[in-house]
Design goal:
Distance between the termini: 44 Å
Largest sheet: 6 strands, antiparallel
Helix content: 25-40%
Strand order of the largest sheet: 5-6-8-7-9-10
Strand content: 25-35%
Order of helices and strands: HEHEEEHHEEHEEHEEHEEEEEEHEEH
Amino acid sequence: MRAMPEMPETLAEARPNLLPVVRSRTFFEQVPLVMKSTPGKATPVAWKPLGGFLGVGLAFDGPDTMRYLGPGELTRWGVSFEQALGMAVENLRSRSTEPLEQLAPGTCKSPWQDSYAASRMLLDEVVRRCPVKGTPVVLVPHRDLLLITGSEDEDGLNQLATQALRAVMAPRALDGRAMRLGSEGWVPYMPERLNNAWADFRKLELFTRARDYDEQTQQLEKLYEEKGVDLFVAAYTPYQDERGRSLSYAVWLKGVDTILPRAEVIFFMDPALGPEAPPVGIARWEEVSRVAGQLLAPVEGLYPERYRVKGFPTEEQLARWQNDPGDLFDEDGP
């Protein structure tokens, strides 16, 4: 087992080894849950959100492994997170002079295998080494893989999706969702629905959200069991029909104290009708929120977001949602 590097006593000693780490936001958000459910297994980590579903933290890069930095180290060294991040980014810049690997004209990948390839999305000059069509689009499906193409490059988007679908299945996978470099920085990106790459980008999105919710579910179930809390953590389930159309769904059980993930579709079930009974209602999340939003209370401090149910929709409300599941795959939806 690799030994964790020892933390220097001063900022001057630590500074040459500070590096930024881009990871999924879920990675950072799960740390407090792990600390609650398994005391001593994790320590606080200093980080900030990046573009919605990613996060950037700080690491001390040792000879064999890295060590994430927390508020304690920064306080001891007398430096703010932003100041330390600026130092870390400059260190990464000095390690990022190599040219990108070209997959095709206007489509590139990172050459680095140092656990910080994804972090290079923080370096504007690295991203812009790839002469893209449109605005830069990146995927960081793995910590050792940064993929770059342009928003107007359909072939490039297809190639990125193909590579990302493989990479998110590997150990130490990161996130399968794409980001576009806008005037305010990185923002979530999805190709137009008519783009040939849309279906694969959609698979990457659903896979990543399902994985994030699954990891969260495991931590919450462990925490509630240890605290003796009788609360059902509903699953986030991706689904694809025979025509290749996809969506995500969750099940809202009548009479069961539940926290729901924000899935695209909700199946309302009444356990009293028996295990073989069909749903008593099916509706899209937006419709449920509009008609029965008072029954959904956001659970603070959770990412991905969850809602604690407060009762069950009325018969009148359920009567609005007597849908055939196939009707939910409309042209404007998933």
